[in-house]
């Protein structure tokens, strides 16, 4: 269609994200015919690469996806490289000339997507120059994709946003939260609002508590320098986890438009009750840091490269959130995320209340939504045990997507880039959501920054510190996913 014509300008084209995610995502769209032939990509970064070398790099990044070598090569021909230091204003002239040339060559008609896949400290500079040096076109759309982290707290994110807003309006900005591009995350709204059985039970009368687990088995790998300044709270809770919380608890939107969905999500984030963060068992948020594993084979966080050996940075967070509305006040939402946990999984467990009659000693019904790496839904119900009497046993209805189905499903970046091409902002975080999330998270950060004595440790490859279990036990709840 007309509007898929676009010139992508990728800042940070030699980086890890571009290689691992962006080129494969653009190729998948090309393979599926979702990108018209009227597209071109300019990759920019400091290194001095030729177009030929860049095209080799692009081909290398899509190696596993290639069915036809010829088709892949015609894809790679759409890529050009421009060595560029984003701080040097002269370079934007060269970039503009190349952009205008490609626009003509591929009949792109002015549509531009600027992908900022670089350190956020450059976002302000880049967007300023794009506007000042007229890389922004008059005849087509101009959209900016922004990677995380969007600031490190409310103040810095506000400063960053103000800087970007000097050159681009909110409706031109696409803040990536790749969780929002995941099939099973998008499925949450479909599942909630298309099944009367579920919709009618999605309330405080039926639900006892909600649990969200985003666990990683890996440690910090090569990202020690970044991570030690960030920690799990900023890296995972402010964005991915609070986004999932809002999708799980938002009211039914009046329609599936960007504005209506965003409005309901924001209402949840605004309703979050201030978290209580203390050093005793009254706390609603606990942190942890991985120590060496019990068998001594996996090192602890403090032994990782580029990590301060005395660091108090948290690699684990668990929390109890209260959505302070009549609808949800009595339903705790527990979240848990961390590195070097026993298993890699992203999942949601909805724990329903037991029946109120004396007929049975029933176990709570449980609905689990598996986000990744397994994708699917599991519903655990009570069932009569075969044989005499009226005894119960749990039975599980399980619908896991097959490996092939998962493999063939569009990947998050692929879906999100397509959304940008189509001008659909529904699955991107609005500034209001980002700001409100930071304000919530900042309160926890502030308390933890004052706790300078120590941090609870957990052995690598376990499900976190015991404090995370105590958090639920106090409400007579327990984590469903045991790792
Ligand atoms: P990276 O360090 O691998 O790449 C950074 C890129 O920026 C390189 O191409 C480098 O040449 C370029 N660059 C740096 N300074 C420059 C300058 N002055 N002028 C021109 N180019 C310059 O980083 P990455 O891992 O690709 O991440 C890019 C962005 O995506 C970051 O904001 C990061 O936080 C975010 N992100 C990355 C991942 C990931 O998995 N890698 C995941 C989520 C978010």
Automatic annotation (TrEMBL):
Substrate binds at residues 178, 182, 216, 235, 339, 344. This is Glucose-6-phosphate 1-dehydrogenase. Its EC number is 1.1.1.49. NADP(+) binds at residues 46, 148. The active site is at 240 (proton acceptor). One of its GO terms (molecular function) is NADP binding. Signal peptide: none annotated. Residues 189-479 form the Glucose-6-phosphate dehydrogenase C-terminal domain. It catalyses: D-glucose 6-phosphate + NADP(+) = 6-phospho-D-glucono-1,5-lactone + NADPH + H(+). Belongs to the glucose-6-phosphate dehydrogenase family.
């Amino acid at each position: 269609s007309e509007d898929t014509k676009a010139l992508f300008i990728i800042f940070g084209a030699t980086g890890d994200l571009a290689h691992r995610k962006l080129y494969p995502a653009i190729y998948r769209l090309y393979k599926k015919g979702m990108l018209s032939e009227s597209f071109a990509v300019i990759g920019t970064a400091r290194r001095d690469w030729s177009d030929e070398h860049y095209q080799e790099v692009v081909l290398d990044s899509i190696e596993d996806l290639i069915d036809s070598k010829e088709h892949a090569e015609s894809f790679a021909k759409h890529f050009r490289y421009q060595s560029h230091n984003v701080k040097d204003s002269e370079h934007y002239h060269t970039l503009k000339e190349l952009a205008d040339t490609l626009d003509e060559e591929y009949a792109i008609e002015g549509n531009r997507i600027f992908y900022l896949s670089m350190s956020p400290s450059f976002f302000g500079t880049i967007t300023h120059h794009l506007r000042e040096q007229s890389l922004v076109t008059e005849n087509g759309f101009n959209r900016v994709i922004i990677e995380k982290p969007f600031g490190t707290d409310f103040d810095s994110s506000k400063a960053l946003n103000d800087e970007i807003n000097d050159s681009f309006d909110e409706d031109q900005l696409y803040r990536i939260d790749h969780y929002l591009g995941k099939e099973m995350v998008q499925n949450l709204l479909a599942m909630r609002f298309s099944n009367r059985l579920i919709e009618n039970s999605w309330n405080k009368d039926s639900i006892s508590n909600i649990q969200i687990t985003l666990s990683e088995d890996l440690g910090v790998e090569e990202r020690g320098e970044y991570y030690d300044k960030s920690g799990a709270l900023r890296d995972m809770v402010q964005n991915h986890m609070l986004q999932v919380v809002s999708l799980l608890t938002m009211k039914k939107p009046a329609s599936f438009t960007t504005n209506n969905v965003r409005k309901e999500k924001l209402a949840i984030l605004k309703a979050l009750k201030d978290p209580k963060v203390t050093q005793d068992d009254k706390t609603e948020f606990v942190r942890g840091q991985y120590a060496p594993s019990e068998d001594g084979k996996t090192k602890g966080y403090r032994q990782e490269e580029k990590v301060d050996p005395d660091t108090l940075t948290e690699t684990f967070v668990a929390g109890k959130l209260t959505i302070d509305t009549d609808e949800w006040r009595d339903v705790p939402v527990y979240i848990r995320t961390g590195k070097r946990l026993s298993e890699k999984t992203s999942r949601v467990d909805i724990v329903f209340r037991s029946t109120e009659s004396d007929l049975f000693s029933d176990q709570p019904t449980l609905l689990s939504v598996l986000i990744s790496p397994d994708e699917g839904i599991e519903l655990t119900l009570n069932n009569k045990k075969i044989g005499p009497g009226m005894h119960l046993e749990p039975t599980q209805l399980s619908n896991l997507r097959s490996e092939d189905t998962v493999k063939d499903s569009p990947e998050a970046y692929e879906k999100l880039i397509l959304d940008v091409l189509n001008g659909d902002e529904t699955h991107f975080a609005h500034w209001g959501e980002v700001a409100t999330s930071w304000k919530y998270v900042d309160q926890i950060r502030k308390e933890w920054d004052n706790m300078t004595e120590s941090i609870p440790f957990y052995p690598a490859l376990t499900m976190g510190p015991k404090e995370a279990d105590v958090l639920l036990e106090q409400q007579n709840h327990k984590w469903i996913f045991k790792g």
